[in-house]
Design a protein that fits this description.
Elements: E1 4-10, H1 17-25, E2 32-38, H2 45-51, E3 59-63, H3 70-80, E4 85-88, E5 94-95, H4 99-104, E6 112-119, E7 132-135, H5 139-148, E8 157-160, H6 161-166, H7 179-188, E9 193-204, H8 223-238, H9 247-257, H10 263-275, H11 277-285, H12 291-301, H13 305-316
Parallel strand pairs: 1-2, 1-4, 2-3, 6-9
Antiparallel strand pairs: 4-8, 5-9, 6-8, 7-9
Helix pairs in contact: 7-8, 8-9, 12-13
Length: 321
């Protein structure tokens, strides 16, 4: 049995993909398969991916029929994975030479392993200060994992494939953002322990592009925010209540109305937000985070809509001309 399945989704990364794949080639540890998914790239990415077939012992190259986004690509990789563990690498990033050796030195009974990451320029070490080993009852450990450790991303984690497949866990293909967060929250519902190590093993490049669909619009009507809220609530109901975890959907709701220039659309969205029980629930959990949120919780509870609108405008930093 192959021990590690490394999944790399790709889209128009001809200037980065060589560095990414070469970093995997340099691994001294060889018990892995590499699964690369091309999401209908329009540049030279696919031809570069083909040129690496002979360089890897276990190499699977999948070409998507339609440009469908990073979630679809990652799910395609999961569907063919054969390893005991799954690792994700983004195609514009790369890993350290001791990436797999370090990961494999960690105990096999760890259900979720998290490790540190660095900026791609290699100049600044960013220790995560997360040398943590917890079990279900460790509230402080869960707080550190969920709130302070690059939690939303899948690229600094080792997952058990059996947990993913047995519980039908997948990246939500209808989301244009937060798909990583909701995947991780769902996975964490089924684990009893995790270990986080301080050592940075991953170099992250933030250049304003995404793998998969490059340019996607954020739909209105709070579809995404409601989904994030439900994911947080499902985790809290089945695992452990961490009030600050509601910062994720709370921020999402505010982001959805940030930048709305049309005064009518802004008012409609804010009015809908004020009536949203999901948003009210988020604010209730966060009411100790500051005076404005505490006042917003009070105004929503007492249906004082003018005050609620004023506070939301202030919190989301929207100024309508």
């Amino acid at each position: 049995m192959i021990k590690y399945s490394i999944i790399i989704p790709c889209y128009n990364v001809e200037q980065y993909i060589n560095e990414c794949l070469d970093s995997v080639l340099r691994q001294a540890y060889k018990d892995y398969e590499l699964i690369v998914i091309d999401d209908c790239s329009t540049d030279r990415t696919y031809s570069i991916l083909e040129s690496y077939k002979s360089k890897f012992k276990n190499y699977t190259l999948i070409k998507q029929q339609h440009n469908s986004g990073v979630s679809v690509a990652r799910n395609a990789g999961i569907s063919v994975a054969k390893g005991k563990y799954v690792l994700f690498i983004d195609s514009d990033d790369f890993v350290t030479d001791d990436y797999l050796v370090t990961i494999d030195n960690c105990a096999d009974d760890i259900e979720l392993l998290s490790f540190g990451h660095n900026d791609y320029d290699k100049t600044t070490i960013k220790p995560s200060k997360m040398n943590v080993c917890i079990d279900m009852s460790d509230l402080f450990g869960w707080q550190k994992l969920l709130l302070k450790s690059f939690f939303a991303s899948p690229v600094n984690k080792r997952y058990l494939l059996s947990i993913i497949k047995e519980n039908d866990i997948a990246f939500e293909e209808g989301l244009v953002c937060y798909e990583d967060l909701t995947f991780n929250l769902e996975y964490c519902r089924y684990i009893e322990n995790f270990v986080s190590i301080d050592k940075p093993l991953y170099f992250y490049r933030n250049h304003g592009k995404t793998t998969g669909k490059g340019k996607r619009e954020w739909p209105n009507q709070f579809i995404i925010s409601d989904y994030v809220y439900k994911s947080v609530k499902k985790f809290s109901d089945s695992k452990i209540i961490i009030n600050d975890l509601y910062l994720y959907p709370y921020a999402s709701y505010l982001i959805e109305i940030t930048g709305i220039e049309n005064k009518k659309n802004y008012k409609e969205l804010v009015n809908k937000l004020i009536e949203s029980n999901n948003f009210k629930h988020c604010v209730y959990h966060l009411k100790k985070k500051g005076k404005r949120i505490e006042l917003l919780s009070w105004s929503l509870r007492h249906d004082i809509q003018p005050l609620s609108r004023l506070i939301i405008k202030s919190l989301s930093k929207i100024y309508i001309v």
